[in-house]
Structure formats: C-alpha cells, structure tokens
C-alpha cells in the first residue's frame, strides 16, 4: 500500500505491507488524516518512533469481528493498552507502559491507505460531520481532557498561551464550558487570534502587560519557553496545565513554581464523545483551521508545508 513512513528519514513508499488485524482489531481504510505537531516532533527524534506516522484520521471499516461496523465511517482513539497490567486494571489504560500509540509508539499510523485499531477504540460518525472536520476529533478530544482535570468554577480567570492548532481548539473548548469565568487567549499571530476573536473570545498578542492574575494557565505554545511564560501570569497557588510535548529539553528555573506554590498538571489525550458532539454542532468550528489539503503522494511536501510558520492544519487526503 501507499504510506508515509519515518525510518530515520521520511519516505513515501508504494510497497508498504497492508497491516493485518489481530483478533479484536478492525482494518480501516483511511480517508483523510491530519498532520499534528507531534508528527513534526517525531521527525526531529521525539519518542524514537519508526514506522507509519499519523494519528488523527477518519476512515471506513473494511474488516471487523463486529460485522455491524463494516462500511461505517469512524474515528479512533490512539492508545492501545495491554489490558492486563496494574495500570490497565486501575482504569489508566492511556498510561499503560506496554501500550501502543497509533503513529507514535509501537503501532503504525494513519498516513497510509490502511491502519488497524481495536474495534473498542472506534467511534462512529454521523453525516453531520465532514471528513475534514472529523480529522480534528482527536486533537479536540485532547482539548476537552483538561476540562476533566481542573476546577473551572465561575469567577476563575483562565489564560490560554499559544495560538497554534491546539491553542485555538483549547480556547474554544474552554469558552464552551466556562460560565462566569474570564478567558484570555494570548498568541503571536493576528490572523490566528482573529479566529478566536470572531468567536467572541478575548484574544491578544503576547503576555506583556498581564500580571500574575490567572487561576489557571494552559500552555499550548509547543515551545520550551511556554512554561516559563505561564509561570509569569499564573497567580500564587494557581494551576499551570501543560498541553504540548516538545522534543527540545526544558532547561530553565522551576524555582518560581515552588515559591508561588503552583500546581503543574500534564494533560494529553481526552474523551472523544464530547469532541465529536462539539464538532458536529459546530460549537467548535475547525473549518478556519484547515490551511491546505494534500494527496498522500505529496506527503513529504505536506509535512514540509506543515512545519512552516503560520500554517495551521495540513490534511492528507488518502482515499475516497
Ligand atoms: Zn496529534
Ligand atoms: Zn497495560
């Protein structure tokens, strides 16, 4: 099959073997897939992964033990827990040390004509959501994760740092769920911030002029300096949520977190159901986030394009 494979360097191959599903897995024909910052980090060495990249996808089930799924359009959760270890037993499958992660760790991903995933990872879509929107379910779910992790009672003040793909999703997810909270999104690009501004969100360039005034700061900058910026605007005893992973190592002073007694929360994959619902209702609008769509054959060019400054979401169109 055709696939975009990272083997120390990125290659477009036409001879990659079609994956065969294990017992509980479905074979899925990929329709479209999104390029994520994580893919770009993997190419820089993050996770040491080799294989087919890509974890944000929409596809059609071709083979499955559950015959009712065949022919259905689906998105899929990306973690594949072992199901038998202590963490899995405690309901922490997303943290299973033996887990595979689609296109990220021990599991070929979605930049290919076919992928396999356990049927239990799949979520059905209705016709109310387009293929391009469906590609955003996984990152939107990640945005919803933090709503389950932190206290967002009214009167709290919240700041989102970063106006990239994830920052824009997180700010929208927060604005849906916050009632009576003050929300500020700070970024670097007027055009990207205007997507938020147009949805009634208070968006601004940079953090200059902001004091230590937020109960909660969400770092979606994808840069090593994001945490230190977050510590500049979080209140004493406030919370900083880290949403992005970076290959580059953090090397800065964490003393401020100690002095201010700041709680630092890591946040990663999240619940698919509210994400599908929000996209389907257009309560979160991702359409302005699509920068360009490439065919899989132009995948190497697509990845290069996705790494350019100012580009939001790049989508690979893989099958019909
Ligand atoms: Zn991603
Ligand atoms: Zn496990």
Structure summary:
The protein has 320 residues and is of the alpha/beta class.
Write a concise keyword list for the protein shown above.
six-stranded parallel beta sheet; Quinone Oxidoreductase, Chain A, domain 1; 18 strands; 10 helices; Rossmann fold; binds zinc ion; 320 residues; 25% helix; single chain
Compile the SSE list and pairings.
Layout: E1 3-6, E2 10-13, E3 25-35, H1 37-43, E4 51-52, E5 56-63, E6 73-76, E7 79-80, H2 86-89, E8 100-101, E9 114-118, E10 122-124, H3 131-134, H4 137-149, E11 157-161, H5 165-177, E12 182-187, H6 190-197, E13 202-205, E14 214-219, H7 226-233, E15 234-242, H8 255-259, E16 263-266, H9 272-280, E17 290-295, H10 299-306, E18 313-317
Parallel strand pairs: 11-12, 11-14, 12-13, 14-15, 15-16, 17-18
Antiparallel strand pairs: 1-2, 1-4, 3-5, 3-9, 3-18, 5-6, 6-10, 7-8
Helix pairs in contact: 4-5, 4-9
One zinc ion is lined by residues 36, 38, 55-56, 138-139.
